[in-house]
Design a protein that fits this description.
Layout lengths: L1 E5 L1 H5 L3 H16 L4 E5 L14 E4 L4 H5 L1 H15 L4 E4 L14 E6 L3 H4 L6 H17 L2 E4 L2 H11 L6 E3 L14 H10 L7 E4 L8 H11 L7 E4 L4 H12 L6 E3 H7 L11 H7 L2 E4 L8 H8 L4 E4 L4 H5 L4 E3 L4 H13 L1 H15 L4 H17 L1
Parallel strand pairs: 1-2, 1-4, 2-3, 4-5, 5-6, 6-7, 8-9, 8-11, 9-10, 11-12, 12-13
Helix pairs in contact: 2-17, 8-12, 9-10, 9-15, 13-16
Amino acid sequence: MNIGIDAKRAYHNGTGLGVFNRVLIELLAEHFPQHEYFLFNPKPGKLFIPRSASINEILPQKKIHQLLRSAWRSKWVIQDLKKLKIDLYHGTSQEIPMGLAKTGIRSVVTIHDLFPVLYPKDFKPIDVRIYRSKLRHACTHASRIMAISRETKRHIENHYQIDPDKIDVAYQSCDPAFSILQSDEKKAAVRKLYNLPAQFFLHVGTIIERKNLLNICKAMQLVQKQIDIPLVVVGKGGAYKERVKQYIAEQNLQNKIIFLSENLEAAGKKPFVATEDFPALYQLSTAMIYPSFYEGFGIPIIEAMSGGVPVITSNTSCMPEIGGDAAFYVDPNSPAEMAEGLLKIYDDKFFSASALEKGLTNAKRFLPETYIQSVMDIYMKAMKG
């Protein structure tokens, strides 16, 4: 079978969507090498170097397609799909090309979340209109919908009145590297490279209101006399980040909150954590705190648990669905509950060890082989009609 994949995010996105795409593609090629994979990429990129001979990168060839790459990806790519005799097209980033359903080519669309619908203030107004239009079109016209959690499936049903039988839930998997316990030498090298403290709590995610960093900082303020370790923040931000920094300044928490990207940039280094260093970064932390108001999946939960790191996360949205019985759950509106979790993990060694073991067990629900088989099962359903 010739399988086409929207690979823009795989080649150009360094955050969650990019990771999802790269893991998906590599696992497909590894577990189902009998198929041929065609990665449709609007322009050359350096974030992804396929390792399998069954993976083919397809770039726009016509001058007009190269000039108007977004139009190529959204519609004109259909000409290439036909030419390459693609049997199934996977829209991995919440959209499929306009008119694809009319070609007879079967399709699957992955819906990660409905952020543009639920949190429009996180986007520019023009982007909200574009994303909402693409979401509705994809959910209506794709042969099958792959939701990454039951929470996301529920939102799709409610907002677009889609038959639930058309929607399959496929829990994604994180990069297998996160489940490898890092050596002391590797962790020491990462600690030195990023100038990390001896102990720290960790928060990973874009610094926007939905991710809830301000309430985490309020929790850190509540425990500052009992816990003498800082919070390391990995992620970029804009206006909301400035609000957080204003609170930090008002509460004299500058020594308690470390914005890693800022520190790296100030030291003349690249202002991001290299992909290969993330597992060690997680495993160096005392706990990962992720009390987001809403997520489609919440991949940092699994990345942390896979490496034996206790997790504090929200009791809302999909987080309990993903964290199982292994996380310490809090009301995302309650800094006091977050503070309780920080103290519990820091002070109660038995609880911390139990959370570690439960996390490792819970992470097995998201093993790569389980995930990629569920994806192929959805492909087969789409081909049957």
